[in-house]
Amino acid sequence: MANYAYLRVSTDQQDLDNQRHGILEYANQQGISGLQFVEDTVSGKVKWKERRIGDLLLKTMQPGDTVVFAEISRMARSTLQVLEMLEHATTTNLQVHIAKQRMRFDDSLNSKITATVLGLAAEIEREFISMRTKEALAKRKADGKTLGRPKGKAETVRLDKHRDEINRYLKKGISKRSIAKLVDCSKSTLYNWLEREGLNKKKPKAKSTDIKP
C-alpha cells in the first residue's frame, strides 16, 4: 500500500514549506511513512478531475492507499468539489487524511458522519449559488436588460461593431445595397440587423391627391 502527500504549489515558497512541514509532522504522529509528494501548480479553482490530484485519485492510487492533504482548503476551493473527492475516495477504498484539521476519511462511522456534515454544507452551498444566480437574473430583468445571448444569428450580431459606421451611411442617404458592400456582409444580413435595431423603417408613401378638373 502506497502513501501520498498532496501539495498545491503557490508563488509563496513559505506557504509550500508550511504545507510540507504540517504534513510530515502529522504523518509522523499517525505512523504514516514513505510519503510520495505530489505537487500541483494548477489553481484550486480548476475542477479537481482536471488537476494532478485527479490523476492521483482516479488513476494512480489503488484500494488501501493513503493520501494526506495539508488542509481542506488545499483540496479545492469549493465544498462541492471536496465532497466529490471524498465520495470517490470512500467508494474506492482510499484513505484521506487532512493534517491541519486532523481528519481521517475511511469506512469508519466517524468518517461517514463527517462526510454527511460536509454533504449538508455542500447542499447549502448549492442553494446559496442558486439563490444568488436567481437574484442576479431578477435584477437584470428589473433593470430592463436582456437575459441570455443576444437574439439573432452570429453574423448579424457581428455588425454591432459597425453600428456607428452604418448609421453614418444611412444619414448620408447611401443605399442599403451599398452599405452591405461597405461593411462586407450580405444584404439579408444587413436587413436583419437593421430590423433588430429598429432602423429598417420604410419611408411612408406620399399620399396621392386627386386634382379636380
From TrEMBL:
GO terms for biological process: DNA integration. Residues 2-144 form the Resolvase/invertase-type recombinase catalytic domain. The keyword DNA-binding applies. The keyword Transport does not apply. The active site is at S10 (o-(5'-phospho-dna)-serine intermediate). Gene3D superfamilies: Homeodomain-like, Resolvase, N-terminal catalytic domain. Keywords: DNA integration, DNA recombination, DNA-binding. GO terms for molecular function: DNA binding; DNA strand exchange activity. PANTHER family: DNA-INVERTASE FROM LAMBDOID PROPHAGE (PTHR30461), SITE-SPECIFIC RECOMBINASE RESOLVASE FAMILY (PTHR30461:SF19). This is Resolvase. The lineage of its organism: Bacteria, Pseudomonadati, Pseudomonadota, Gammaproteobacteria, Thiotrichales.
